[in-house]
Fold this sequence. Notes:
The protein has 335 residues and is mainly alpha-helical. The protein has one domain (6-329). 66% of the residues lie in helices and 0% in strands. Helix 2 packs antiparallel against helix 3 and helix 5 (92-108) runs antiparallel to helix 8. The longest helix has 26 residues, at 293-318. It comes from Sedimentibacter hydroxybenzoicus DSM 7310. Keywords: Ion transport, Transport. GO terms for molecular function: proton-transporting ATPase activity, rotational mechanism.
Amino acid sequence: MAKIKDTDYLFSTARVRSVEKYMLTRERAEKMIDAKTTLDSLRVLNDINYGHGNEIIDPNNYEKLLSEEHKKTYDFISSIAPELDYFNMFLYPYDYHNLKVIMKSEYLSFDSSDILVDTGSIDLKTLKYAVKEREFSSLTESMGKALDEVIETFPKTNDPQQIDIIFDKYCYEEMLNAARETKNDFIIDYIKLQIDVINIKTYVRLKKMDKSWDFFTKVFIGGGDISEQIFIKNYDDSFEKFAEQLSAYGFRDLFLEGTEELTETGKFTTLEKLLDNKLIEYVKSAKYIPFGIEPLAGYLIAKDNEIKIARIILAGKLAGISPELIRERLRETYV
């Protein structure tokens, strides 16, 4: 990649600052929750430039609106970023999601058209063709290796979970390698934090399912600050005791709060919300950097978080969930 200086981001940072005012604030999220109908909630998004002008969105088809907003966000960053390759990593999870779906639909014979997403770094048609023809030159090297491993492994095990495990490991390994190529601490530390969050969620879920530590080693994703040994050596400890191991990594208090709720109710909602909030709190530091890659990366990550918030609210409204319960699930906003 070409060497990009922070000053090369002066124009693009200014452009990002100009659109941050249209993001979903806590006040706007509350307005969506309190709206009488799902359509009224969608109008709040329309007011902050979701959709196309005064186009009326079918409340039952809000996913199309959210997908379009994600694509619009990346197209915006693409149009202003001095080096686009630095941002592809944030789309890799969508590419790998699509690869999972395509491979499962091939092996398990089901129609996957409604669960593929058109927001990855690689065009869907390209992915489908690559898998069908077993010709991976149009994909990244890591994606090709992941596909080779899945193709070799699945026929031996017939276990769809292996597809998820293999693709997840390659996905976050590729993201971390791409982050390191930027030589930017903000991006590198964000990806590492994301990996830690995923591993903590996995650890808790497997413990609640009475899965053994050796199964955890199969799904553990390397590259985060919290080593595999921290989890393995303390795998049989209570959540309260394990929380002390997380103190050095800044997870202790939220882990205790989230697992206390989990123990009392059996619900993961609080823990998952607190872990997601930790990620967005980290990203908020990008708002205070005058110029550079950080404001662009922060905005891209924050928009992804914003779309998740909108999805939680809209899904809750359509399902008739009370405003109070929707608020319990609501993540922190970026602005």
